[in-house]
Amino acid sequence: MTGVVIVGVDGSETAMKAAQSAQHLAKALGASLRVVTAFDSDRTEVFEIGGDRWIVSDASEAEKVARTVAEKLQTEGLEVSYTAARGKPGEALISEAELVDARLIVVGNRRMQGLGRVLGSVANTVAHHAPCDVYIAKTDNRP
């Protein structure tokens, strides 16, 4: 395999569309696929019921989202990994790309029109600051 393709997911339908595009691109490039979910806080809650104790954190919830998507994208001949990365989504994807020396970052085009375009979007942030190529997948339902 040559290189790593990174895709950011948040559990939404549009993110899954971007992830499926990333899966196809990774296979075509002979690369591995890394699924990343960002979390922006270190909030942790502890729940105790009887003798049982559960610890729930933003990081563990983000990792669960990434793992679920990674499992759905598993296919023969494709190495798929996942992680939770701290930071705002665009910044987290850029940091992860630098960490693994990614070949490509795949993001969806959500919030690329109208007010979202003016205020910024994950795709906009990544496109302007990525250390590698960026692919913006069409994930909205507009023609």
UniProtKB/TrEMBL annotation:
<dbReference type="Pfam" id="PF00582">
    <property type="entry name" value="Usp"/>
</dbReference>
<feature type="domain" description="UspA">
    <location>
        <begin position="2"/>
        <end position="138"/>
    </location>
</feature>
<dbReference type="InterPro" id="IPR006015">
    <property type="entry name" value="Universal_stress_UspA"/>
</dbReference>
<comment type="similarity">
    <text>Belongs to the universal stress protein A family.</text>
</comment>
<dbReference type="InterPro" id="IPR006016">
    <property type="entry name" value="UspA"/>
</dbReference>
<protein>
    <submittedName>
        <fullName>Universal stress protein</fullName>
    </submittedName>
</protein>
<dbReference type="InterPro" id="IPR014729">
    <property type="entry name" value="Rossmann-like_a/b/a_fold"/>
</dbReference>
